[in-house]
Amino acid sequence: MRLPAIAASVVLLTACAGTPPKKPASAAATLPAAPAQYTPPCAALPPAERSGYECDRRSILAMAGEFRVRFVFDETAALAPGYQPRAPQRSGGTELVEVVRDDGDTIVLQHILVMKMGEDVHVIKHWRQDWHYQPASLLRYRGNGRFETEAVDPATAKGAWSQVVYEVDDAPRYAGIGRWRHEAGVDAWESDPTRRPLPRREFTKRSDYQALDVVNRHTLTPAGWVHEQDNTKVVLHADGREQALAREHGVNSYTRIADHDFGPGREYWRKTQAFWADVRAEWARGFARHPSFVLSPEPNGEARIGEFFALAERAGNGEAISRAEIDAVLTRYGLALTEPAATP
C-alpha cells in the first residue's frame, strides 16, 4: 500500500464532491437491486423488543461494514428569483465503516475511504458519526462557522437518538435528533431540521449560499443502508436576513460488497487510532470549555485538515504526537486550548 501525500489526501476527499453526469441517470442505473435474502438486525429479538432501545442499537451497528458508496444529488426547485438550478452530481467510492466505540448509549462509527486507483491504494480517514441515546445537549451549527451547545428538552430526548457528524479531522459539522422507527419491515431514523455547513462537494466551487437546512434520514436496506437528505440551500446575509436559494434531494447509498480489499484501511486505523482518539478527546475538551465558538475557516477548512493529516502521517510512522501539538492546531483555528491535558 502507498499512503498518499497530504495534499493528495485533501484532493481525494473530493471523491464525494460530485461531477455532472454526461446524461441524466435513471433510478435503475443509480440503485442496485435488493438481494432476495435479508435478515433485519432485530429479527432475533422477541417481538416486544423490536421497537425499543436494543433494536435501535442493532440498527445503528448494522451501518458498519464494507461498502461501495454512490452519492447522488439533484436540485429539485429554484426558490430564489432568477436562480438557475445546477447540474446533477454523481460520484462514489469504496468505504469501510468501523465501530470504534460502543458504550451502550453511545456508538461511534468511523468511515475510512479505501480507493484503488491504478496500482495504488489510497486510504483516507473520512467522516465520523456519533450516536447518543437520550442526549442532554447538542452542538448545533448556526452558520458562518459558529457552533453553539443547545440543551435538549427531556421530553424531546426521551426514547430519541442524536446523530452528530464530524469532519475528516474530527471537527464538528452538524447534529440532529430523532427516533428510530421499526415498521413494515423497515428500520429507519429521521432527524429534526438541522443546519449544516456547505458540503465538501460545493465548498470549493460555490459562494452563492452559506448553509444547508436539512432533514436527514437513515434507512437500512437489504443491500446495506441509505442516507437521504432533504436539503434547502440558504443564503445568510450580513444583516441577519436569510434567503432560501434552492431545494435539493440527496441519496447516499451504501451497498455491501465482498470483492474489495479493505485491509489497507484497517492497517491505517491500527497505526493511527490512538492519535485520532487523542484528537477526538481534545475537540471534546474544547467543546466543554467553549459552549459557543467559531471555527475559522469554516469546518471544511483545508489548511486545518492538512495540519491534522500531517500529524496523523507522523503517528502512522510510529512517532508520538503530544496533546500540546493537537491543541496548538485547535487554537489556531478558533477553539482555544491553552492548557494541554495530561496524556494518560
- Contiguous uncertain segments of 5+ residues: none
Structural class: alpha+beta
Radius of gyration: 20 Å
> What is the count of distinct domains?
1
How much helix is in the residues? 10-25%
Proportion in β-strands: 35-45%
Mean pLDDT: 91
Describe the SSE topology.
Elements: H1 6-12, H2 27-30, H3 53-61, E1 65-78, E2 89-102, E3 106-117, E4 120-133, E5 137-143, E6 146-151, H4 154-157, E7 161-166, E8 172-183, E9 186-191, E10 194-196, H5 200-203, E11 211-221, E12 224-236, E13 242-256, H6 263-289, E14 292-294, H7 302-316, H8 323-332
Antiparallel strand pairs: 1-2, 1-13, 2-3, 3-4, 4-7, 5-6, 6-14, 7-8, 8-9, 9-11, 10-11, 11-12, 12-13
Structure report:
This protein has 344 residues and is an alpha+beta fold. The chain has one domain. It contains eight helices and 14 strands. It has a ten-stranded antiparallel barrel with strand order 1-2-3-4-7-8-9-11-12-13. The protein starts with 5 loop residues before the first helix and ends in a 12-residue tail after the last helix.
Protein traits:
about 350 residues; alpha+beta; about 25% helix; about 40% strand; globular
Give a quick precis of the structure:
The chain is an alpha+beta fold and 344 residues long. The chain is built from eight helices and 14 strands.
